[in-house]
Amino acid sequence: MTAHGKQQNVSAEMTVAFAVLMGLAVVVATASRAVGQTGTGSPVSATPMAQFNGPLMSLPRNNFPVSRQSGLTLQVDPRWTNGYGYRPVKVTVTSLQPQKSTRSIRIELHVGWQRDLNIEQTFEFPAGQTTASTTISLPIYQSSMNYFWWDLWVDNIRDKDLSLNRLASLSWAGGGANSNVGVTFLVIGPPARNRTLVATNAMELQVFALAQAEFPKKWVDYTTFDVVALSLIEIQQLAKNDPAVFRAILKWVRSGGQLWICDVGQQWDNLPRTSQLTGLSESLFSSADESRVDHDDSEPGADDPTTSGEQPQENDENATVEARSDAADSEDAREPEGERRDAPAKPSSETSDRVRQDGWRPLRFLRPRSNGLVITFMDTRTGARRTVRDPEVMAQLQDDANFVTTDQRFDHDVPAGSERRFPADSSEWFVQQPMGFGVVRAFRGPNEAARFAMMPVVANPNVAANTEVTPELPRALSIAIRRAPRWETRHGLTPDSSNVEFAKLLVPGVGLAPVTEFRILITIFVLFIGPINYWLLKRAKCLHLMVISVPAAAILTTLALFAYAIVADGFETQVRTHSFTKLDQRTGESACWARLSYYSGLAPGDGLTLPDDISIYPIIPNWAGSGDFSEQRSIVSEGHEMRLVRGWLNSRTPTQYLSIRSRKSPNQLEVLDSGDKLRVNNHLGSGITYLVLINRDGNVFEGESVPRNGSAMLRPTTRDDAIRRLNKIVMSNLPQAPEPLAGGESDLSFVRTRSRFQMYGRYGGPNTGGRLSDNFAGTALIDLIGLGGQPALDLPAKSYVAITEHGPEVESGIDYAKEDASFHVIEGRW
Is 599 exposed, middle or buried (0-12, 13-18, 19+ CB in 10 A)? Predict the structure, then answer.
């Protein structure tokens, strides 16, 4: 065939491939638009496709039955979902005969390629046993294809037959993190499907099936998943037969995951049992209840702006809501769905403050310019309230930092003739309730994600694309995955990509180039090396010495700059921390998100030491080069500690990590409430600088300067005054880049433009490009003061917010590190 003919064939093949891809995109887009329609809208089309998620590797090879050195065999199983987070790698050592004595097994596991991460762990092979195993929680920070290799020592002697070198690992390529999928599920699967991973042909979701007996007992091993989906019977079995696994799943949910519990009953028959298992409230709030409560919760005359000190405006609060036009159903308006926050419960008759009640609620769906949304704003300068129905006015007030949201509701009295293209809420399929940073969802029907994983699998994507009859995702699953945020949305970063907000949490006063000092020194250097040096040498009749004086002056200037940097930055290690902790004193469980910023004049030789109930992810500066995304890092796992020994903290280099911790916490705030008087005993593990508390009757109290292990009387206040105080504290502590690095970007300006109508991706959260201020901790902080669209101080009775001097749930990894310019918030329940 001629070259011209080959070129025509290639062009034709590319044209066909492009047409197939465009056709598939049209199908997916059409299906996704139809998901939310009432009536007979088509669900998202999906064909289960097998995904490579790592090999099952056994040694020795070369036809040796056992190791010639130790007489053992080794199996390493890294099969898991392909995502960022901690990947549990199962290591099993087997002997043909029971061991006569206990043997020590040490394995150093490597992952990556150019700059690998290795983790070392030691376990015992007990005497009298034929099998011993351990699970290594391996951090996955790379989206590229990963390679696994290792060195193994038996009784401190390296076993060559059971070790795998880097080049040999090429034949066993493992799956790395894949950020192109929508939502990642973990379900219980049968033995035939154990550790298999399938995804839809359009990558809306992927599902990993795992045998129930192999579910991890550490919460960090669930961090690669977005959702754990189980039936109520499976949850009951886990709670009864393997409580350690059940507790690990709940800890993961509190850290920000989602637990979907299915088969609760078409009439919510088993919802009380679900509540008991998870420790959540048994109350069930319907949409009708929310509408009634919203109406009852409004203040007298709230719909009339004149009662709050505001003058009526045209086309504003009293404007008539018109039916959505055809133009509003364009592609841009049709793509995103807004989420209606949980409606508040009716406040106590003893107080006018708004008090939210706990319970199961359906997820409310609203358009970015939905008819019927009513928001009440408060001017933090005057305390005046303003109720708004017009979407444009809402956007203007949400952009103004002087206004915060104090209430919002949805008016069901929509104009006649208007048509809702999306369901009003999720009550047809599921209800949900928050748990820490995460969510528990209860579904009426079966576990559709597990059903999807058990369907016949297509190995070839071309077959999936050309199948005449394509299976469809059930409507309940299609609706639910649209409101399940993906990994990068929850965390506000990807570990192998630069982050635009790195400069906003630098340790103050260190790490920056001495620009002013450099200008002074370089000016002195230029004057001295030029005219002054020439004049002095000429006067001394020694011009030939310029060949010596010029380099000598340059060396002295360089040493002066170096010495100044050493003296200015010092040799100590400093850390700046921003943390948000949710503490449930009723169960003793806590979840803490902390952003850690380090600067070490001389990096500690032992690295960082952290407990194993923490997951940690690197934050890469946006000025880093492509080769700096992944440092070569080493971890030593010992008992319940992780020693991050190499590559985690370098001298005189600004370094940041996102740390997430979920654990049983001993910290608490003891509340002595007599109704009109309230005293607190501070056992939170840190001094409190400011405290706002809502008692059992919904009354608001505040106090400040409560010492650690001390007590204080709190004074009554109003909710509006507490909101103003919190707003001032939070806004003054938002991370801001130093002026030389600000580049015109400010968290303040970014927060002012936040809106509950922000654009969302098709199957995940907002397309923020990796903003840490948009992760779960940042969102919780902004929502607390009412700048994220949710009413400010939206907390139930018997809750508090404490601004503390230190983070009691935060671990920096260096005991002697000096903390500077940190900010810690605890949202607690008792």
Answer: buried
